[in-house]
Amino acid sequence: xxxxxxxxxxxxxxxxxxxxxxxxxxxxxxxxxxxxxxxxxxxxxxxxxxxxxxxxxxxxxxxxxxxxxxxxxxxxxxxxxxxxxxxxxxxxxxxxxxxxxxxxxxxxxx
Length: 110
Known about the structure:
Elements: H1 7-10, H2 13-27, H3 38-56, H4 65-89, E1 96-98, E2 105-107
């Protein structure tokens, strides 16, 4: 399983941002979570993804709590930017399609 998420990958900014985007993408459509703004859901998920791997690998130190919170906010802001970028290029849940022979993105189904 070296190609999937590990605790070490989740401790990196890239891994935490990717995991946050993926998790929020699926959680935001749950009936009970639809009343929560996606921005706040992203902050909660990002904080969990930053703090929990450290707790589960016994690397959690209360002295570093401020750093965990700041890193969680950084992950959340980056993930929100990624979600907005996705929304900009694929509005209304439309899929992205790359036309053959070019690198231009076009709306439509694959």
